[in-house]
Every structure is written in C-alpha cells, then in structure tokens.
Amino acid sequence: MVNTGVSPDVIAQEYEAKTGVKLRIFNFGVEGMDIQTNAELAGLLVEQYHPKAILFFTEMREYGPQTDNTVYEGYKHAAWFQYKLGNPSLEGWFFDHSAAMQYFLPYRNWSRADFPDKILSDLYRYHQTLPMGYEPDMGIGKSIDLIPNPDDPAQQYLYDLYADFKPDQNSLAALESILMLHKEGVQVLVTEMPAYESFYEYFGGESVHQEFIKTISALTTEKDGFYIPPIDPGLIPLNGRVDNHHLNYKGTQIYSELLSDELSGLCLDGKTCLANEAAQ
Amino acid sequence: MNVTSLLFLALSLLAALVYHKLPAKWRNAWLLALSAAFLATWSWQFILVLLVFGLINYALGLRIESAQTKKKAWVLLGIIANLGILFIFKYDQFYLPALARLLERMGVQALSDGLKILLPVGLSFLAVQAVSYLVDVSNKRLPAEKDLVKFLIYTVYFPKLLSGPVERARQFLPRLANPLPLDRQIFERGLSLVLTGLFRKIFFADALFRMIPEAAFLTPQGYIGQNLVFWLLGYAFALYNDFAGYTSIVRGVSLWFGIELTNNFNLPYFSHNFTEFWTRWHISLSNWLRDYIFFPLSRGLMRRKTNLANAAAIVVPPLATMLASGLWHGLGWNLLVWGGLHGLYLLGERLIGLVKRPVPLQDQNFIQKTIGLGVTFILTVLAWLPFRMSLPVALQYLEGMFKWVKPDRYLILAYIRQTTPVQSWAPLDLPNPVLLLLLLLAVIFDLLVSRKGQEKELVSFHTLGKVILLVVMLLLLLVSLFADSAAPFVYQGF
Fold first, then answer.
1. Is ipTM > 0.85 here?
2. Are residues B263 and B400 in the same domain?
3. Number of compact structural domains in chain A
4. How far is B484 from chain A (nearest CA, A)?
5. Peptide bond preceding A116: is omega within 30 degrees of 0, i.e. cis?
6. Cα separation, B80 vs B60, whole angstroms
7. Residue B60, domain extent
8. Which of A101, A116, A124 sits opposite B433 (nearest CB)?
C-alpha cells in the first residue's frame, strides 16, 4: 500500500542521524495490494530475505467487508504465487527459476487492448522507482479538505462501500498472520498511513476511525507486535497529498521524516529499536 | 472438451493409435464410442438428442431410397424435420418467450425456466449435413447407408462435430470405409495441420480478439476513427484465423484416424472477387449453399423461360442463397443484413458481368488484380460490421470509422526528443502498434503457407524452412499461452 507514500532512504538517514544505527530498508509495497495478499507475500518475504523487522503500513479501506478482493484473487491464481506457496507447477517453476521468463513478465500481456499504455506507464514508473522501492508520486490533489458529498454519484459509491463500518474478520485474520511472523524471529511493527480527516467521512467520521485504531492496536499488542500510533495528519500540508488518502513526493518526504522521528524516539526512550535489515 | 487443449490432442493421438491397432470390424464402434465420449464432455444429454437426430435421418434415408411413390414428399419431410429440429433448439429465443407468455395466460405459471432448451453442440452443421444426405439419396447420388454405426459416425464424428466442416456423405462414408494407414507421412501431415491450426487460433485469433476493447463493439462513438478501422481489420483477421485454425486442428486430428476432412479455407482474403471469395471462405458450407439452394433455384427459374423468370434467375439465387447463409448463422436482423450484403455483392458482380464480359483472372494485369483484391477485401471487411454487432451499433461504428483524429505530432516529437517523459500511448491518437504488427504477421503467415494461391501444409516446406518455421511458431505459441488461456471458437456459437 505504500509504494508511493514512504521513502526508505529518508527513514534510514534520519534514523541513523538520531540513533547512530545504520538501517537497510526496502519498500515491498506494490500498487493496489490488499491486506490478504500482503499477508501471503509477507510470509514469502521472510522466507526469501530473512528481514529483522517488518514495518507494516495499513489503513481502513483494507478492512471494509465489501472491499473487492480481485487483487487477492489475481495473486491466488498466479502460477508463480502458488508455486511459492508450495503448489508446484511447470509454469510457476519457470517463472521462479528462469531469467528469460522473468524478463518476459512485463510483456506477458502483449495481446491486451491496453498493452501499449500499460507497458509505457510501467516502464516510466520503473525508471522513476528508486533502488529501495520508493516510487515518487508527482500529483497534487484538489479539494482534499472538503468533506465528500454523499449525493455525488462518484462519492456515493464509497459511502455505500464503507457504510456501518466494522473491520472485516478475514482482514483482521490477515493482519494477525503478519503479526505471527514474530515467531520466525521477525520484529513486526504496525502503523496507519496518514490519510486526511475528510477521508474518514466515508466510514462514518472520526469516531469510527478511533474505534478502528483501538481494534488494530489491541490486536497488534496482543500478538506481540508493536503498534505505532498514527501521525497527526495535519502535519502534512495539502500540497503534499495526491488525494485524501495518498501522499505525493512532498508529503512522502515530510511523513518519512516524522515517522523516523517517532521510530528513533521510541528507540531512544528504550521502548523498541529497529534492528538492522528492516523491510516495509 | 476444447479442441485446443493439450489433453484433447494427446487423447486423440492415443485413440488414433488404438484405432489403427484394432481389427477392422471394431474400428467404427471405437470411433462412435469416442464421439459419444467427446459429446459427454459437453453434456451427456447431447448424446440422447443427437442419437434421436441420427436415428430420424437414418430411417428417413432408408425410407426415401425404398419409396416407389411420394419420394419427394419424404425428402420434404426430412428437410422440414431437420430444419424444425434446428429451429426448436437454436432459435428458442424466438418462440420461447411467446410460448411462456401464452402458457402463463392459460394459468400455467413459472415455466420460463423449464422451457430453456439446451442447444446441442454443432447442431447447425449437423442439420445441413443431414439435408444434403437425404437429397443426395433421393437423387441417387449415393445409396442410403444401411449400417447404423457408420451412419451415426457420419453424423457425430467427433473431430467435425463442433463446427464442421460440413461433410457430404458421398465423400465421407467411402473415406470411413477405407481409412488411410497411419504412416509417417500421414502422421506428419496431421501434426502440421494441428500445429498450424493452434498457431492460427492461439497466436493470431485469440490475441487479435483481445486487442479489441470489448466496449468498441458496443459503444463505438467513444473511440477515434483510426482505432475503429484497425480494430475492424483486427476482427476480420481474428475471425478468419479462429475458424481456419479450428478447421486445421480438426482436419489434422481426423487425419491421424486416416479420415481426410474437407478443407474449409483457402486464403479467402486474397480473393479478387466475391464469387472467388465464396470458394475460399467456409468452403464446405459455401458448396452446400451452392449445391442445395443456388443451383436448384437457378435451374428452377431458368426452366420457366419467361422474361420475368430470366431476370429473377439473375437476381434471386445469389440473394436467396446469401440470406439463407445469414439465417443459418443465427436469427437476427444483423445476420440477415450480413447475408444480404454478400448477396448484393454477388449480384453486383453478375450484373457487371452482363454489361461487360469479365476478364478471366489469369488474363488480368497487376492493376486489375489489385483493384479486384482491394475492393473485395474492403467490402468483405465492412460486411463484418453487421455480422459482429447489432444494426444501430454497426451504423454508429461505420460513421465513427470516418472520424479520424490528427495524431498529436507535438507530443510525438516531444516523446522522440525525450523532452517529455513517455508515459502512455493513448494521447498520441495512433493505433495500437502491436495490433498493426500482428496484422502484418497474419498476412505474411498466409503468404508463407500459400503456393500458387493454394494453402499448403508445413510438410511441403524445405527441411530448413520447416525447422525454422516450426521453432518460431512454437516459441510464439508459448508466448501467447503465457499471455492468456485460449478462448472458445466463434463458430462454436453457430
């Protein structure tokens, strides 16, 4: 969820400056990823890269019971994903072992109607993305501070989607499985992305948001994770946002510095320190 | 079971090996069992429906042969029975809603679900085949088949079951009685047909279909003219490669059983006029339409020897034949218009021929040939509009094809000079370059497999050429298979 919202470089530099600890941080966020897919991928990540810590960024949309799970379904049916989960197939083996097949992957949709657009935008993004996995978003949103109009058909959809919000049990189970990675010797930290307050109107307002925070923080603490309270969203100016829940490159810079302050403060206060080789 | 699946091809080859090892007297039973098993992979109910269908035609064939009087009446009954079965199963959307309403008025409720009828696979092809059998028996072109097993194989032989070719009994039954031995040459010919068919279907047809946005054929007004033109060209080549690919696969599989099936396509888009086009496109159905509608109508009208009948003999046969072809494809105004357009094209050619004696193709110069080829191709492609979409949408599409937008040359230059980062293709207002490449490759492939205007199998190639083409085809097949799974054949729906 955070491929565009958090800069690993900024966090590592700030953290080192304040605590003297040198971190190697990678951003494993992918566009449009949902929590169930993240849960499966986090397990694979630990198996493959053995990180010392995982900093998991979450937000309320992932817990809406009606949120469509097409991303997860897509991953579930991918041969490579299944192969990595222990269900062997020739195609999965090829994608995992063959450099030629991996090179071919971005071009596999060559026969789709939107291929020229998709491949050009992917190549552009690929060149923009930094080695640590951060992809700066250059857009600046408008009317972010306005409360979304429930009568606007475009907004109505989101109001309907998150009406009577209560965290979905499957999503909570996915978060739990990420937290359980501590049994593999991985330190798991959870925090919430700093969406603008107007965003929470879809869910029923700030009171519902606070209830959500309580649920997530309780679960994280119960499962031996470390919960970092969300940063005051007002500290990120409106021109640092793409919309009411995504940050642009300016917002990312500010948020990453604020988060690094928080993380280094926790370490200097003796509450928790990030071990070397962290993954987001 | 889809004929492009590896399972179908592997099982077919295995079954063919068993077939050739069996004593001759068991072979037909084996073929019938295989056909029934293939039908059952779609629905076991199909076996019952097609068994009844086969038995009716078997009995009718014997009755027509033995009839001393009223032979024509029996043939007519046979034609009505076959067309009736086709109407009941295929055109149910035409009468079921009305029937349901009538029953509801009579107090019989909730029958709409119960009235749904399962259309057995390939029924349109089987019906025209059965009609040709009965007419041929009546005209003493062949004796009625006494062996029920052989007749049922003719009806439901699994390679040709889904979408033909429309086989004539007088050609198919002798081949069934004397199958070719499965030697290396026959095996290689079969394999080459299967590979060519898979390549046409998966690399060209499926990919071209996917390159056309679904909404383009529903709401074309949202797209620029140049895209609509190239998508229609893409559709034309996709449809051709889809059906030609299917025919090639089933001909290859059938050859492994030693039974040669009729070739359905012979480079149709290289036709120089519409008369030639219809000897190259869906050949088995075109021949059927010619022999059982066009010729009888022409003969019937010419016998009357009146001025009106003479004029009608020129106008009516091509129109009636092509309208029947449209109806065969489905009950809809758009398909009737598609058939009607081709009828008009053929009629136009006849009328021009009356005014000016047509120059035989071999005597035409390059310019004449090119004009003929270009006009035939463009009009054929335009006729696919009503074939593919409803009439109002087809008209919108046709109108939209003339609304070209000038490509954004400033953006193109900025992209080339790299003063603007290249982020997407759509703002350039240029057609999909992959689609253009695939269209070009489709034409090159047709040219490669043609020799003197005839499509030839890969086995007829020089060894080095064969190896190179095979390797390239297999690689491209692999690339296509990883792109997406195979889609069903378009003609399976008819």
1. no
2. yes
3. 1
4. 8
5. no
6. 12
7. 6-179
8. A116
